[in-house]
Amino acid sequence: MNPTINPVQQVDQAFIYIIGISFVLLILITGVMIYFAFRYHHRRHPVPSDIRGSWKLELVWTVVPTLIALSMFVVGWNAYTGLRNAPADAMEIEVIAQQFSFIFIYPEDKESEGELVVPLGKSIKLKITSDDVLHGFFVPAFRIKVDAVPGLNTYAWFLADKTGTYDILCTEYCGAGHADMTGTLRIVPESEYRQWVESDDDEEEESDEETDDEQTDDENDG
After folding, report:
1. H-state helical runs in the chain
2. How far is it, in rounded angstroms, from Cα 36 to Cα 84?
3. How far apart are CA 89 and CA 70, in angstroms?
4. Helix, strand, coil: what percent of the chain each, to 5?
5. pLDDT class for 57, splitting at 50, 70, 90?
6. Mean of the pLDDT values across residues 125-146?
7. Pairing of strands 91-98, 154-159
């Protein structure tokens, strides 16, 4: 069984690679410009040199930048496909955006609002849509940013590889309460996740039983 590749690492590697090459090119080009400014200053060369074209030089500065650009594309493409190709065995959770909160529906038919709880070590596929207007689902720690569009189902996935609490933000202006449309991603051990699901179910059952008892008492009193 092949280990699941964390797309966060691929995205970070792509950024580091592109920024690194950009800095190297910046330093080289700036260095050459400064050298030429001193080397060919008009006081040293009052008569301009007659420089003819060189096909070898032109070939180099055509091929090398092309290869660099292609390498950036390959690295970026690998990061993009890593974010889009969710593992087949990923745990699927529905995400419904609404003004001004996120609703999460779990495979166990459980719902939570504003807090996404997932088990450690699982690949999580989020099936995202909107119930009213355009929203943006953004989890910076896992490099996820997907639009939530009314009537359209989109998705994103991440590998829950470490326990902790992470921010969830809406990145599209969706109304007066947009700034307050935040949430929390909580990654917990498998046992704690199961306990969380079951304990909430028990609380709901107890609440339903209390409601039924109150209704029965009211009917008896009547």
Report:
1. 7-39, 55-84, 190-221
2. 47
3. 33
4. 45, 25, 25
5. confident
6. 95
7. unpaired
- Domains belonging to the chain, first-starting first, are 7-84 (1.10.287.90), 91-212 (2.60.40.420)
Which residues, 6+ apart, have CB-to-CB distance to 149 below 8 Å? 129, 130, 134
Q: Do 123 and 157 contact (CB within 8 A), yes or no? A: yes
Structure tokens at 132: 């009213």
Q: Do residues 156 and 116 make contact, with C-beta atoms less than 8 angstroms apart?
A: no
Q: Which two tokens stand for residue 217?
A: 């008492």
Name the token pair of 74. 């390959």
pLDDT digits (tens, 9 = 90+) for 71-100: 999 999 999 999 999 999 999 999 999 999
Residue holding tokens 């902790």? 164
Tokens of 178: 């947009």
Rounded (10°) angle between helices 55-84 and 7-39: 160
Q: How confident is the model at residue 210 (pLDDT cuts 50, 70, 90)?
A: low
Q: Could you tell me whether strands 164-170 and 135-139 are parallel, antiparallel, or unpaired per DSSP bridges?
A: antiparallel
- Predicted confidence at residue 1, as pLDDT, reads 46
Partners of 115 in beta bridges: 184
- Of 139, 188, 148, the closest CA to residue 166 belongs to 139
